[in-house]
């Protein structure tokens, strides 16, 4: 058996509205005076019904908004547009402010004439304060990052200048007194020069790591196939010296990325694949596959491989698995790769078999998912 909606007592609807205590649902007359009250309204504002019925809606407005005529403009807009939504500060009975989300809708009679308004208000103070705290934290981080980058740039210059002098004068010393000093002295000079050169490389790599993501460049559509042609040209001396075979798939995708960062990523992984090689000529393969909403890239080599116990460490800054005499480097390259991938909302990992080679994988959102 069904009930004719026309026969339903309106008190049922009032009970339904009263049950929604997270919102203030009230009715206003044409002049913006409060005609009905609601448990949710009492909970949000602190007023009882006998304290507000008949009072103007500006009771909940700040002094500044009252002086500016904001309430009147909102009612007029609602009458013209049929609905008006806004957010702003409102005032409780105790004088405290709360951030209100307000929806105003006109009530019309059968002829379409506006006879009053329905006002629905929600207290979003917690969200507003959280947003403000997040914005302030973001601002502080931006300032901190800017200061750190400036410090890194200045420090790198100030540190490299004396290092250049140390390396230059030690090299001059070695040439000037070659054969006049004993073998031990020549060895000591070599240590000093090598240390200065390595420190310069370390400073440059740290500066590169600090600058990633802070260059201010925008993302563009990057053709990874053409990008790999650029990487091949830049690594040509390394490839030729190692007699390496670099095999790049013909169907690398176009992705939305920072071109310079992506070039660093491809270049670092290919260079590492060539550097950490066995006695046989290195073979490096590069390809990509589409998996749901992202691209999965791969750089595979036939090199020395990586032991499984180092899986959680290889992407850390300064992490080295071999001595500098075996494989030169600063231990920052893979940390830089991870940072670039994460800035592009992806993840990076590897699969490896010691003595047989390693495959590095990383993901990036597909262009149509950004």
Short key terms for the protein model shown above:
Beta-Lactamase; 11 helices; 3 domains; 45% helix; 5-stranded mixed beta sheet; alpha+beta; 370 residues; 4-stranded antiparallel beta sheet; Heat Shock Protein 90; single chain
Walk me through the structure.
It is a single chain. The protein is an alpha+beta fold. The protein has three domains: 5-123, PAS domain (Beta-Lactamase), CATH 3.30.450.20; 125-211; 219-370, Heat Shock Protein 90, CATH 3.30.565. Helices cover 45% and strands 22% of the residues. It is built from eleven helices and eleven strands. The protein has helices at residues 10-18, 39-45, 49-52, 63-68, 70-81, 125-176, 183-211, 224-234, 236-242, 259-275, 333-343, and strands spanning 23-28, 84-91, 97-108, 114-123, 220-223, 245-248, 254-257, 283-291, 294-301, 348-353, 357-365. Strands 6-8-9-11-10 form a five-stranded mixed sheet. The chain has a four-stranded antiparallel sheet with strand order 1-4-3-2, sandwiched between helices. A two-stranded antiparallel sheet has the order 5-7. α6 packs antiparallel against α7 (183-211) and α10 runs antiparallel to α11 (333-343). It is elongated.
Helices and strands in order:
Elements: H1 10-18, E1 23-28, H2 39-45, H3 49-52, H4 63-68, H5 70-81, E2 84-91, E3 97-108, E4 114-123, H6 125-176, H7 183-211, E5 220-223, H8 224-234, H9 236-242, E6 245-248, E7 254-257, H10 259-275, E8 283-291, E9 294-301, H11 333-343, E10 348-353, E11 357-365
Helix pairs in contact: 6-7, 8-10, 10-11
């Amino acid at each position: 058996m069904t009930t004719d909606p026309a026969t339903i007592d309106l008190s049922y609807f009032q009970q339904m509205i009263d049950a929604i205590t997270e919102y203030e649902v009230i009715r206003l007359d044409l002049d913006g005076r409060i005609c009905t009250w609601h448990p949710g309204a009492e909970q949000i504002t602190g007023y009882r019904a006998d304290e507000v019925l008949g009072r103007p809606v500006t009771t909940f407005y700040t002094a500044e908004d009252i002086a500016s005529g904001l309430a009147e403009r909102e009612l007029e807009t609602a009458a013209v547009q049929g609905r008006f939504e806004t957010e702003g500060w409102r005032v409780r009975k105790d004088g405290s402010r709360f951030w209100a989300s307000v929806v105003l809708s006109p009530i019309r009679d059968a002829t379409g004439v506006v006879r009053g308004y329905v006002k629905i208000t929600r207290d979003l103070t917690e969200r507003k304060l959280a947003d403000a705290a997040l914005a302030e934290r973001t601002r502080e981080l931006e300032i901190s990052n800017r200061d750190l980058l400036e410090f890194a740039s200045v420090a790198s210059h100030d540190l490299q200048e004396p290092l250049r002098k140390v390396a230059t004068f030690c090299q001059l010393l070695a040439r000037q007194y070659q054969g006049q000093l004993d073998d031990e002295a020549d060895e000591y000079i070599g240590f000093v020069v090598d240390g200065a050169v390595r420190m310069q490389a370390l400073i440059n790599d740290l500066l590169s790591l600090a600058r990633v993501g802070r260059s201010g460049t925008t993302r563009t559509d990057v053709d990874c196939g053409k990008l790999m042609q650029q990487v091949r040209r830049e690594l040509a001396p390394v490839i030729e010296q190692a007699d390496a075979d670099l095999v790049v798939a013909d169907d690398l995708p176009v992705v939305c990325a920072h071109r310079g960062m992506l070039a660093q990523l491809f270049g670092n992984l290919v260079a590492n694949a060539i550097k950490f090689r066995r006695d046989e000529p290195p073979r490096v393969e590069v390809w990509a596959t589409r998996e749901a909403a992202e691209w999965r890239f791969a750089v595979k080599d036939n090199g020395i491989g990586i032991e499984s116990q180092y899986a959680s460490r290889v992407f850390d800054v300064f992490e080295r698995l071999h001595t500098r005499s075996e494989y030169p480097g600063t231990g920052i390259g893979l940390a830089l790769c991870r940072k670039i991938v994460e800035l592009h909302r992806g993840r990076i990992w590897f699969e490896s078999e010691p003595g047989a080679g390693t495959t590095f994988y990383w993901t990036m959102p597909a262009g149509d998912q950004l």
